[in-house]
Task: inverse folding
């Protein structure tokens, strides 16, 4: 009898061991996880391709608000809307976001361009509507799109909507890259990119260290030294020296963006919007251009406290430009140049794998410095 | 007396019978449980297999150079053209099935966009679907016209021929 009971106990134990294998829904769970990952990618795909029927924002809306002018009703509304409102129709969400970021002039976590604050607010609101509609109540999300021409250096543009990503949930993330608006691709940018390619082609052809190293004519240390020097010079040329006295990427990007701001302040509000300016001046008791300039100065001085706020606007903008360029140089020296060592080590240890060293260098550079694309990230998790 | 000639009998208790009964009952319960669990496991795995097959069909058809792409339904960038999809005829569906090199199963499609853009879902090739049909959906951008590309859901339904 004891044997029988023991036998039953053993059989029950084996059943207890086997049962979870049959009853567990690991396969289904794996499929659900895969589905969630695909969902994030699908939503991002829709963000890149779907179009917004109607979108509008009011330039300098916040400036009017700060001046105590309510242009949302009354006789002033049609006038202000007609002069300052910008309507965009049938643009993709991605285009809208990249255009918004291109004119944000964001630095050190703040948007310097006070004229387009409403553009940022309206774009984020529109993105939030789109995401809520797509994901429903089952998911929470965080959607962020970042444009940093120099990877890791907080200058460029950023849009974000949704919740903070929780640390204790299964989060599914999809990443894509969106092309910046064609208006940024000025002749200077084309010339710079062309010069960069030519410089790499010519330097690698003239001083073929890779072949010398492969053939054993130079040691690994010599090869690493040559490649490091080459990359450091290349970065310096691209970032601030420029090729053959041409423009550098800092000149091109920062000058271009600040020039846009200068034009907006000097031309648009003084000439084209003269009527609005006069009306607002009567309402606020202050010249509109002066009001814009004062708020721009306030915005600059919050980030650059050492800058003298009493300087004329043109001079102040030049000072801000120089300050950003200087900080960019320091960042590149401290951060990007350290990445050169890792790149050189990688090339030296895998020299036979690199069939096209020029392409590798260009790819590596474009990962560090890329003026033309913004990174789009969508993270979703189940509520 | 030699023991061969001893005709006295001895009646002993059959002590192993209750033990055997316990073993048999234990075995019966064990096998009943295992059989039940295995059956449901098998059903789940079949459902997963069917889903996988349907998903494979969907992925294959969604390729730009796939049979739907040849008909202009899938546009560059993975966008589905609603006008082209709506104009698919029975002959087109036969072509798509023939060119898909998917054998043993039949499939049909459904395309939905928000009611504010299109009143009802557009269905193609699902008139003769069987009861045992598996459906897989994918969220896609849907091209309506040059001005409008909106979010939509593309569903592929698969059943055995």
Result:
């Amino acid at each position: 009898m004891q044997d029988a009971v023991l036998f039953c106990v053993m059989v029950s134990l084996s059943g207890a061991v086997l049962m979870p294998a049959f009853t567990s829904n690991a396969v289904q769970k794996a499929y659900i996880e895969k589905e969630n990952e695909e969902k994030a990618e699908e939503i991002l795909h829709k963000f890149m391709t779907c179009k917004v029927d109607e979108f509008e924002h009011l330039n300098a809306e916040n400036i009017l608000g700060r001046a105590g002018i309510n242009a949302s009703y009354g006789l002033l509304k049609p006038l202000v809307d007609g002069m300052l409102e910008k309507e965009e129709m049938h643009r993709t969400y991605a285009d809208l976001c990249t255009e918004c970021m291109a004119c944000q002039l964001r630095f050190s976590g703040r948007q310097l361009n006070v004229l387009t604050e409403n553009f940022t607010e309206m774009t984020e609101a529109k993105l939030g509507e789109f995401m809520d509609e797509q994901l429903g109540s089952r998911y929470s999300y965080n959607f962020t799109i970042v444009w940093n021409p120099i990877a890791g250096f907080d200058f460029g543009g950023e849009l974000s909507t949704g919740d903070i990503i929780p640390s204790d949930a299964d989060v599914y993330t999809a990443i894509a890259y969106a092309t910046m608006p064609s208006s940024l691709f000025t002749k200077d940018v084309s010339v710079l990119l062309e010069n960069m390619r030519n410089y790499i082609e010519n330097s690698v052809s003239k001083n073929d260290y890779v072949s010398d190293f492969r053939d054993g004519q130079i040691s690994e240390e010599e090869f690493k030294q040559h490649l490091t020097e080459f990359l450091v010079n290349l970065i310096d040329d691209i970032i601030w020296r420029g090729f053959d006295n041409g423009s550098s990427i800092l000149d091109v990007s920062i000058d271009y963006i600040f020039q846009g701001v200068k034009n907006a302040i000097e031309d648009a509000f003084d000439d084209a919007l003269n009527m609005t300016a006069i009306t607002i001046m009567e309402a606020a008791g202050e010249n509109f251009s002066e009001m814009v300039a004062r708020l721009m100065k306030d915005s600059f001085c919050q980030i650059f406290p050492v800058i003298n706020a009493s300087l004329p606007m043109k001079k102040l903008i030049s000072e801000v430009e120089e300050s950003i360029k200087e900080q960019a140089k320091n960042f590149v020296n401290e951060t990007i140049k350290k990445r050169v060592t890792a790149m050189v080590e990688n090339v030296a240890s895998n020299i036979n794998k690199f069939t096209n060293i020029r392409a590798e260098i260009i790819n590596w550079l474009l990962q560090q410095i890329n003026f033309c694309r913004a990174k789009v990230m969508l993270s979703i998790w189940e509520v | 007396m030699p023991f061969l000639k001893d005709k006295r009998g001895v009646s002993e208790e059959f002590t192993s019978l209750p033990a055997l009964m316990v073993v048999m009952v234990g075995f019966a319960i064990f096998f009943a449980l295992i059989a039940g669990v295995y059956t449901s496991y098998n059903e789940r795995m079949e459902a997963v297999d069917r889903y996988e097959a349907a998903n494979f069909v969907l992925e294959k058809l969604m390729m730009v150079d796939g049979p739907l792409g040849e008909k202009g339904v899938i546009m560059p960038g993975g966008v589905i053209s609603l006008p082209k999809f709506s104009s698919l005829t029975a002959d087109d569906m036969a072509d798509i099935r023939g060119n898909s090199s998917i054998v043993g199963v039949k499939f049909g499609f459904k395309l939905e966009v928000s009611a504010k853009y299109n009143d009802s879902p557009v269905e193609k090739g699902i008139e003769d679907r069987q009861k045992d049909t598996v459906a897989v959906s994918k969220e896609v951008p849907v091209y309506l016209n040059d001005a409008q590309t909106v979010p939509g859901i593309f569903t592929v339904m698969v059943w055995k021929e």
About this structure: The first helix of chain B runs from residue 16 to 61. The two ends of chain B are 84 Å apart (CA to CA). The longest strand of chain B covers residues 149-160. Chain B has one domain: 40-160.
